[in-house]
Amino acid sequence: MTSASSTSAKSLFVESKMRLADRVQVNINNVASLTRQIQRGSKSNEILMQAAKSFAQQEQSLENAEVNLKKLGLVMTHLEYQLDAIEQSSNKLEEVTEQVRAMQR
After folding, report:
1. What pLDDT is recorded for position 79?
2. Minimal CA–CA distance to 33: which of 25, 21, 45?
3. What DSSP element (H or E) covers 16?
4. C-alpha to C-alpha distance for 23 and 36, rounded to whole angstroms
5. What is the DSSP letter of 43?
6. Quick one: angle between helices 44-104 and 4-42, nearest 10?
């Protein structure tokens, strides 16, 4: 048979256990509330969104710069071809000029 004191001890133990569980729950809720307040106060979400947008814009700018560099490379190649053609024409012009002078003598 259980005595009155052991029943009383069991109910005290159960009551203490429940109060402890309640306090743990209250503490968890308080920590969660504090975390939300800190997050709102720091505006970290807004800062992260701005950083992500800025990063995306920079990525697009880098892609545009790469495309422009490729175009400039093509333009440079074409200018080199044109320079070669001008040099060849200049050499031929000098030869023709010498031939004309020789014919005039």
Report:
1. 97
2. 25
3. helix 4-42
4. 20
5. T
6. 30
| Tokens matching residue 40 | 């709102």
Torsion angle of the four alpha carbons 37, 38, 40, 44, in this order, in degrees rounded to the nearest 10: -160
Pair of tokens at residue 88: 């060849």
DSSP conformational letter for 3? -
Cα 105 to Cα 42: distance, rounded to the nearest angstrom? 93
pLDDT of residue 8: 77
User: What is the residue-level pLDDT of the chain in tens, covering all 105 positions?
Assistant: 456 677 877 787 788 889 989 999 999 999 999 888 887 777 777 888 888 889 888 988 999 999 999 999 999 999 999 999 999 999 999 899 999 888 887
Tokens of 56: 């995306």
State how far Cα 73 lies from the chain centre. Answer: 28
Q: What is the pLDDT of residue 16?
A: 86
Vertex 91: Cα angle to 90 and 97 (nearest 5): 85
